[in-house]
From TrEMBL, chain A:
Taxonomy of the source species: Bacteria, Pseudomonadati, Bacteroidota, Cytophagia, Cytophagales
Protein name: DUF4249 domain-containing protein
Pfam families: DUF4249
Organism: Fibrisoma limi BUZ 3
InterPro entries named in the record: DUF4249
UniProtKB/TrEMBL annotation, chain B:
Annotated PANTHER family: HEMOGLOBIN AND HEMOGLOBIN-HAPTOGLOBIN-BINDING PROTEIN 1-RELATED, TONB-DEPENDENT OUTER MEMBRANE RECEPTOR
Principal cellular location given in the protein's record: membrane
Name of the featured protein: TonB-dependent receptor plug
GO molecular function, one term: siderophore uptake transmembrane transporter activity
Subcellular location as annotated: Cell outer membrane
All residue ranges annotated as the TonB-dependent receptor plug domain in the record: 117-217
Lineage, top ranks: Bacteria, Pseudomonadati, Bacteroidota, Cytophagia, Cytophagales
Keyword tags: Cell outer membrane, Membrane, Receptor, Signal, TonB box, Transmembrane, Transmembrane beta strand, Transport
Membrane topology: Multi-pass membrane protein
Domain TonB-dependent receptor-like beta-barrel: 285-723
One GO location term (cellular component): cell outer membrane
């Protein structure tokens, strides 16, 4: 909606011949103290991998400020596992990490997982998360318009006993690819009901629709929505707030579990 | 306590009752017959005794029997003296001649300055259409609200917009009324123009503190817009042709008892864009230009029943419409207000009792209707008010004027209405809230001339609100006093509490059509403000008026939204509110030259505004967007020749407090999400709310009005230059990723400032026959 507002205003101004002027400006930003940033997703049956970085002043010289030599410990039910500073590049997904462990996680839904990071300068950050049960996709159906284009209609049931947060992503032909749909939704409109969510008309006969429905913890959902808001606030004068809600104490980023249901369907 | 106060007022009145006679009448413009609001009638034999005319130029005055001299004056008009030998109640109608028809040889009376000195009212600014028509304006569209922005303590909420922040209040804390009817979104074109067409408006009064007891409902200001009284002399056609819009106005009498005024305004950029779209219709790879226009229609009919009773019907409707034509995605976004009111004024035979009974209907809504393939999206919000008001004033003797009355409002809200429909039921969505509320208030006040030097105005309002099981009521005391050291110097002080039961879900400082009004509920308590103000006023030689005013305002239960709030299509919007406190304090200096060929004013405000929310930045105090330490405005109007007026305005203010990211980091997202562009992985880090000051804002606007000498009527051409020295004031600062020669991101960023208005000339042709 915020984007709609901005688009309308700029369109009206442009229509009246008042095209806004742009110019470089010297911004006197206060000195910036870099913070530790961790991004770690635990997934049942997958090895533990994470990236540990530092933030930078917005106008600082470009670099990917990896933080190496830190002590990273994953704790669960009194057991502490140290995640070594071993870089890993996942060729299947194209993601790279600077801490990884070959030990695979076995999801436990009863108790939380805690991540503790202490770097060489003594900075410490901690975060806690837990696994929640995935929510099944009931169906993913291509729906055609009269031009032969199709959108993907995904259906799933919401559990009325609890507040639920979802992220639904759709890709075309390749599972890990640029997203055709990236929807963040909660059950405010449809608590306990069947939820139907459609994409744009981006599919054609012969395509494969890959649908992934993440059942998110509240922490992860708030992180995703506020990151989205912060990116908008950076370019939109009408955006309300740019603060990112993170579950990392002492730093930035996210420590979350990935529980999801995945389905694919060929468009016919 | 309150009952005691009322008894005290009434008893003191009765004790002082003497055998006074009553003079009633109307003060009007000699040329048009239009009543002059705020004209002063002074009894020269008794210092400090007098009256002001109401919104239609009518007055009632108690005067001792015998020979008396009345002086009738109004700013910009030649004052008149009338000697009467009173042996019974008299009706006197006075027609004043405009001073600017006679130019420099006329010294315009400074009586209005003295009236400002002697009144108990603090913190009020009145702008009439004559002043507004003389000043330079953006795109040639005369706008009374933008003239108010040039007064101390009133700040524009954004470049070129008509939104205002008054003494540290947010945009939703201003009550806009058109003939007493609430206008919920008083702007067009996303805030760039106000809804008040200059052809239909007589004046606008802005109360910043010391609010009269009859006003309530918003914390920071009341903007009372009065419609133009129709001419009773002859039929006239007027209008203007401008860069953005054209106006047409018809006014005149129908017989002896009825007179009317109708005014319309419409933009016409869409006429040209439609022609371009038709021409490009068959060309491949061309996108149609969106169609946009707005219009206003104002009407007023006055009916005089007899000398002591009259009716008038006032109506306003205006809408903005934005249409995005496309084969694939068609969208229409329209929004607007309607304000209708019926007023019945009555005066008793001895003119000591005046009654004003009125009924009002106010409506605001926005609708966004889009069609995409088989889907229709219908999104909107709105509010509807049905209001009854009664206001009675009673003048038991010349030293007391007691005013009392009440109002009752029934409101229907429609909040976050979202309807998505298609042929398939499983694809349909229908959400939204439709609360109904009652709101009301009773008030009483007394203006009391304690001594010729000391005047008190004390009042109490009791307001109440109910929605389902949630109910609130609150006393709102009002008191102000004036002590006159001499006829030209006075000290005033006031205290006022205001309560606000309706809250605006506003996502920015601008008054956007998508902002949603939301009522108090069990969870959302009313907002309160308490304001103290003190002013020293000095009428210097009837030529200058110098005012220095200090104020302190405390705000409680003010609303904002939690971080990450879902403001769009949310059925439980009240869960997104957070509550906090605020304060604002400052000093306003105002020097106005009210006589001579050169007129205008200089205003300077030094002010601080704070907000504090437990749920924002951990409860740390922060400056809201509209906090500005220094604010200067200089306004000058110079009558160079009988037909040529030059004008200039210059404003300077400290930059807005805004949130600007100071850091950034990379978030690569989860393993199953591919982010192709590295720039899209960047997350900005905002250290705190409104952590950054925009560069200072300053701008010079110039204007000149040349009146032609037509055979009949009046015509003029108005030329304006907005931002004459082309200061590129940043509207927004954003970061942009740097790219190399191949268009690939380098990973570095630079700050960019976006400016809305460079130097802009405009021309308007006005006519009246």
């Amino acid at each position: 909606m915020k984007r709609i507002k901005q688009t309308y205003i700029l369109a009206v101004l442009a229509g009246l011949g008042l095209a806004a002027c742009q110019q470089d400006i010297d911004v006197d930003l206060p000195p910036y103290e870099p913070k530790l940033v961790v991004e770690c997703y635990l997934e049942d049956g997958q090895p533990v991998r994470l990236t540990l970085l530092e933030s930078r002043g917005y106008l600082d010289v470009a670099s990917l400020p990896l933080v190496d030599g830190a002590t990273v410990v994953l704790s669960h039910q009194g057991q502490n596992d140290t995640i070594p500073n071993v870089p890993f590049v996942d060729r299947a997904t194209g993601k790279s990490y600077n801490y990884s462990s070959p030990r695979r996680i076995k999801a436990s839904y009863e108790s939380p997982y805690t991540l503790t990071v202490t770097d060489k300068r003594g900075r410490t950050l901690t975060a806690t998360t837990r696994f929640i049960k995935p929510v099944a996709i009931k169906s993913i159906t291509p729906e055609f318009n009269n031009k032969g284009e199709a959108y993907g209609l995904t259906k799933f049931d919401d559990n009325p006993q609890q507040k639920n947060y979802y992220r639904l992503t759709l890709t075309r032909n390749i599972r890990v690819d640029t997203l055709s749909l990236d929807a963040l939704l909660d059950d405010a409109f449809s608590n306990g009901e069947e939820i139907n969510w459609g994409s744009g008309y981006t599919f054609k006969p012969g395509d494969t629709i890959h649908a992934t429905l993440y059942h998110c913890t509240e922490d992860y959902y708030k992180f995703l929505t506020t990151v989205q808001s912060a990116r908008q606030a950076n370019v939109n004068p009408f955006a309300a707030s740019g603060e990112v809600i993170s579950n990392i104490r002492g730093g930035l980023g996210i420590f979350a579990t990935l529980t999801y249901d995945y389905r694919s369907v060929v468009v016919k | 306590m309150k009952i005691c106060l009322l008894f005290f007022l009434l008893l003191s009145s009765a004790a002082q009752a003497q055998s006074y006679l009553t003079v009633t009448g109307q003060v009007s413009d000699a040329a048009s017959g239009v009543g002059l609001a705020g004209a002063t009638i002074t009894v020269l034999e008794r210092a400090g005794s007098g009256a002001r005319t109401d919104s239609d130029g009518r007055f009632a005055l108690s005067v001792a029997a015998g020979k008396q001299t009345l002086r009738i004056s109004y700013l910009g008009y030649v004052a008149q003296r009338i000697t009467v030998n009173l042996s019974r109640n008299e009706v006197i109608n006075v027609r004043l001649k405009a001073a600017d028809n006679q130019l420099s040889e006329v010294v315009v009376t400074g009586q209005s300055n003295q009236d400002k000195v002697m009144s108990t009212q603090t913190s009020v600014d009145v702008v009439d259409r004559k002043t507004a028509l003389s000043l330079p304006v953006v795109f040639g569209e005369v706008d009374l609200i933008k003239v108010l922005q040039l007064k101390p303590g009133v700040k524009s909420t954004g470049e070129g917009t008509s939104g205002i922040s008054v003494r540290g209040g947010s945009t939703d804390q201003n009550l806009f009324q058109y003939d007493g009817t609430t206008v919920y979104n008083p702007s067009h074109m996303f805030g760039f123009f106000s809804t008040f067409n200059i052809d239909a408006v007589k004046n606008v009064a802005l109360y910043k503190a010391g609010f009269p007891a009859e006003y309530s409902g918003r914390l920071s200001s009341v903007v009372d817009v009065t419609s133009l009284t129709p001419r009773d002399s002859s039929f006239h056609v007027g209008g203007g042709i401008g860069l953005i819009a054209s106006r047409l106005n018809l006014t005149g009498p129908i017989g002896n008892k009825i007179k009317f005024n109708v005014a319309g305004r419409r933009t016409y950029a869409d006429v040209f864009t439609e022609a371009i779209n038709r021409r490009n219709g068959d060309r491949p790879n061309t996108n149609p230009i969106p169609r946009y226009y707005f219009y206003d229609l104002n009407g007023r009919i006055d009916y005089t029943i007899n000398d002591r009773s009259r009716l008038f019907l006032s109506a306003y409707t205006g809408r903005d419409r934005f249409h995005l034509p496309s084969d694939v995605f068609r969208s229409t976004f329209d929004w607007g207000n309607t304000a209708v009111s019926l007023h019945w004024h009555q005066t008793s035979k001895d003119a000591r009792w005046n009654s004003h009974t009125s009924g009002h209907y106010a409506q605001y809504d926005y609708r966004l209707v889009s069609t995409f393939d088989r889907f229709t999206f219908n999104i909107g919000s709105g509010i509807e008010d049905f209001v009854l008001k009664e206001r009675v004033s009673w003048q038991p003797n010349p030293r007391h004027t007691v005013t009392f009355g009440g109002e009752l409002t029934r409101s229907r809200f429609s909040i976050s209405r979202v309807n998505i429909s298609s042929a398939k039921p499983e694809e349909n969505i229908d959400t939204g809230e439709k609360p109904r509320v009652w709101e009301g208030g009773l008030f009483v006040s007394d203006d009391w001339d304690v001594t010729p030097k000391l005047k008190l105005s004390a009042g109490l309002r009791w307001s109440g609100f109910r929605q389902d099981s949630a109910g609130y009521n609150a006393p709102e005391p009002r008191i102000s006093a004036r002590y006159a050291f001499s006829p030209s110097v006075s000290l005033k002080a006031s205290y006022a509490r205001m309560v606000q039961y309706r809250h605006l879900v506003v996502s920015s400082g601008a008054a956007l059509p998508t902002d949603i009004w939301y009522p108090s509920t069990a969870k959302i308590k009313p907002e309160y403000s308490d304001q103290l103000a003190a002013a020293l006023t000095w009428n210097i030689g009837n030529t200058f008026l110098l005012t220095n005013e200090v104020y302190y305002k405390r705000l409680r239960q003010v609303v904002d939204f939690r971080t990450g709030a879902q403001l769009f299509a949310n059925d439980r919007l009240e869960n997104e509110f957070v509550f906090g406190n605020g304060s604002a304090y400052g000093n306003e200096i105002y020097l106005e030259k009210t006589a001579g060929r050169l007129r205008g004013w200089v205003g300077y405000t030094l002010a601080w505004t704070w907000r504090e929310f437990k749920d924002i930045d951990g409860g740390k105090r922060f400056f809201p967007r509209y906090d500005r330490r220094h604010d200067i405005s200089v306004v000058a109007m110079y009558q160079l020749r009988p037909r040529l007026t030059l004008s200039a305005t210059w404003v300077y203010n400290t930059g807005n407090a805004v949130s600007l990211a100071t850091g950034r980091y990379v978030s690569m997202d989860n393993p199953y999400v591919r982010v192709e562009n590295p720039t899209d992985q960047v997350v900005p880090e905002f250290p705190s709310r409104n952590n950054f000051r925009m560069p200072s804002y300053h701008r010079l606007d110039l204007g000149f009005v040349y009146k032609f000498r037509p055979r009949r009527g009046e015509t003029d051409i108005t030329v304006n230059v907005t931002n004459a020295y082309n200061r590129l004031n940043p509207y927004l600062i954003t970061y942009q990723a740097e790219e190399n020669a191949e268009g690939e991101p380098t990973g570095r960023f630079r700050a960019r400032a976006i400016t809305l208005f460079p130097l802009l000339p405009s021309v308007t042709y006005n006519f009246r026959f």
